[in-house]
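Me: I keep going back and forth on a fold encoding question. No explanation is needed for now; the record alone will do.

Assistant:
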Amino acid sequence: AHIVILFGKRMKINLVPFSCDPGAQPHKRRRTSEPIEIEDRLESLICRVGEKSTSSLESNLEGLAGVLEADLPNYKNKILRILCAVARLLPEKLTVYTTLVGLLNARNYNFGGEFVEAMIRQLKETLKSNLYSEAVYLVRFLSDLVNCHVIAAPSMVAMFENFVSVTQEEDIPQVRSDWYVYAVLSCLPWVGKELYEKKDVEMDRLLNQIDGYLKRRQKIHVPMLQVWSAEKPHPQEEYLDCLWAQVQKLKKDRWQERHILRPYIAFDSVLCEALQHNLPPFTPPAHSDDAVYPMPHVVFRMFDYTDAPEGPVMPGSHSVERFVIEENLHCIIKSHWRERKTCAAQLLSYPGKNKIPLNYHIVEVIFGELFQLPSPPHIEVMYTALLIELCKLQPGSLPQVLAQATEMMYMRLDTMNTTCVDRFVSWFAHHLSNFQFRWSWDDWADCLTVDNEKPKPKFVKEVLEKCMRLSYHQRIVDIVPPSFSALIPAEPMFQYKYEDESNTSLPGFATAVTVTNAIKNRASNEEILAVLKEIPNPNQDDDDDEGDGFNPLKIDVFLQTLLHLAAKSFSHSFSALAKFHEVLKTLTESDEGKLHILKVVYEAWRKHPQMIAVLVDKMIRTQIVDCAAVANWIFSSDMAHDFTRLYMWEILHSTIRKMNKHVQKIQKELEEAKDKLEKQQHKKDSGDEEDMEKNSDDEDGQLEEQIERLQEKVESAQSEQKNLFLVIFQRFIMLLTEHLVRCETGSVDINTSWYKNCIERLQQIFLMHHVIIQQYMGTLENLLFTAELDHHILAVYQQFCALQL
């Protein structure tokens, strides 16, 4: 990795994950620092070209081409590597770098040829490594080299034909042919005009093939990926359909596109004299089972030209300019997302910003990424930080656009996907916390006149609960109008049922007092267990001697008392659980015990969801409860009134992630042990010392035993993981089936707020954990998602399967 000055910021960029030339050697420290300084200077010059400068971009490019040409004899490999890297890593400056390569090719034909070969090598490497988004940038770069007279148009058309021929392959997943079609279509805004002028017949044939493919591909998966289920006011189109409509319109407009910066036009007289290179024949690598193709997605649409009334007009959703602008903004975020200030500055200094309503485009692209299903390209908190930074840089205009977007999303909550509503809640609460929680709440008074389970009041309630996590209860009471009191979260107080003197008749009251005193007097685990032994089991007759079974009263008395004494903070609660871990393990030996302990945590802390979440998390980590118990508890009838609350699903997803990490950790240990054994045996084969053999035999034996033990642990963990998903899906099916039967019997519409929430939570489980669930598809199909299942529930499973096909 080299430190380069990039866009005025110091930024680390790993230039050579793949060698772009056959003789590439890793950096060795040289005796003299001069060559390194020159190399770093070249890197800096190339990366910074096209930035703010007193002279024009064209004169900068001409000057840089002269510098690089002079350095080619000594630093050719270095220059090749840097140019290959920027083609892959800085796609938003695509045409700047293709022009630079065009100028170098015009001056040094051999260098142009070597660069094209290096790019083809890099393209093959990226495809082999499943880096498909980077591969798209490389193909686009190659296609734009046609405009710079570096690559001959017929050979580019031939490459596109090979890409589109993938649609004729048999027994491949649809996502494979989708990617190759997308790679071709997404190049056409840049190179369509040039290719049509030179090879119109071949291009027509190519587009007809693509049209045929798009008409026959299946799109069962689309509803699962849409942010809104309603098609009004803006259709939520599948990405290939949308891009195809944009390319069709571009073709109809005779390939005239008005937004791409094309510096090479200024050098046309120089470039048209250059000799061109033919691309070597490129055969797409064959499909393999370990290939991970990009998932399809839906194009997020929130604004159109009517929403940005002042200033430049927003391009229509099917104009290719909309695709180019959005693509470039996505590229800027991808290049700079780790540095929010740089990222915000780059977005706001987007070329051609005076011709478009830039703030609207930026806000739409950011929310499009935040709401992308199954998951956003970057961590969610990054988008909050980026929007805050943009508001600081454009205080006079961007906050208004953001407020308009928030209002629009609030108005469309009825049809918004539940997973996206969760992200909307988290973003909005976090955003408000950075602006003194100021918001015109009275504008949302319409949510007070409908049932609290409806999307709007539910959203406001969840936002206020998240705000309370980022502040404190009284602050939330103060900022919200009194009319909203029904939606304000309860004060997070502990509910201790053995506190009130009037409850002395409550079973276990006297023991609770004894346990309180024992804990205060620093009693040991054994002493506490001795006190609890006196508690009769309400589930057994008096003459039943088997007192060691599940006793709910013991758990009630002990856990209520312990948590009450430790209620001051998270840390106090954690220390209490750690100190009396042995007692808790003894009380929860059975599955009923594990379920009951979660029930007690909920009863005691039901007014403090965050405390419930952290305590459940701690109990899973310390193995007081297991993941399946948490899943059963969430779906139990005791939790029915909180079933649609956001914190419940945060707990469930956190539980699934813990299970998945546990399996991955053991799998990693097993792989490492196998590698170690392999290395030792390799060493033994190459060595000839007898005593070394004796020692290594012992070590081999130990390692083989360790591998055997780990193998068993992996199988056991995977079985537990599979069981967890079976429990979750089984409980979903039971709840949904009961609802559907109840509605059918009573001739009631099935589409209630509860049903929408539940069916979309089922989709959420599939989407968020799709990589793991794929491993157990056979079992799920045989045991749960059978043909007899109600079609409403089965449709979710079929949509999920379609994502992978």
